Task: structure prediction
Amino acid sequence: MPIPSEPDTRGLPAPSAEEQAHSAALTERIRCEIDAHGGAIDFSRFMELALYAPGLGYYSVGRQKFGAAGDFVTAPELGALFARCLARPCAQVLTALGSADILEAGAGSGVLAADLLRELEALGNLPRNYLILELSAELRARQTQTLKLKVPHLFNRVHWLETLPAKGFRGVVLGNELLDAMPVERFRMTAAGLQQLQVGWEEHRFVWRERSADAALQRRVDALCLPEHYTSEINLHAEAWVGSVADRLTEGVVLLVDYGFPRAEFYHPQRAGGTLMCHYRHRAHANPLMLVGLQDITAHVDFTAIAAAGCAAGLELLGYTSQAAFLLDCDLEKIMSASDPNDVRMHLALTRQVKKLTLPQEMGELVKVMALGRGLDRPLAGFRQQDRRARL
Result:
């Protein structure tokens, strides 16, 4: 039986006429695929189209997404402090490997790349190349503009990729709020057994539908021992991506920064509705079936699954901790103490960044940092003071 969606837009800003036309075009694209598949598609496919359909998906078009004028704020958009701290483990890896590259997957506006390159230059540890894996032509153009404006003398080190590099990569792979935007499978525990959630079309709107889960999903969910009426997600795309990166990494580190939990917390009894969340003009809600192409859709990361995927692919789990602990171990206090307290405007800006990045009720505890690597034999900056690998 279909599970009707609740397309409630109360409290959300009204889309412009242009935005409505864009959403209608993507809606028609998805509706045609639903028809071609007999009336429903898996939610993971719906999410993929909503975010990444060429020329129509949320991340494929030019609408402002990041920062105060967009839909949400990421750590790099707050200011340079996050990048300056992140530069410490990057510099450590680049020093250990001698000559190596940085690969950032999904570079957003390009501000993290620019600030990271500037800090690495100050530390005397520039990468040979700064590679950006970006599928969106619009975002590549924005990244180009940002980098030329902020670090024009380093722009020749930056190169864009459309696929992961070939085997033999040496250096650092960065994924900041990357995995949470990968399409997830949604499921629901019922009296009739595990149901895989799908999306259909009914009465001029998208609606939830369900089907019996396939064998792969059934095996994964069976191991979780979840109760009836429990709804949640599994991010198979993220696990596969980590495996693909591991296959290409000869020496170096994969640094992942994202909203998420260890598995025991991810599938906690109190989280019976899952972690799926949408963001539209700094309003958060839980209905992914509306505002198609105009809103971000995310799901938190099961870091236990990511660690298992990396280790299964031959990587070593080097560290796992909260963003607050990671930044404090990466010279956050030293950077703050070096700022001029007489420059009131600058000092207040840094203080605001610190609060947003480290307070438990902000990003400090909800965001986690994980390092997976190969060929490194010393503790990595960011995980020396507090390491939560035992919680995974």
Notes: The longest strand covers residues 249-261. The chain is about 35% helix and 25% strand. The mean pLDDT is 92.
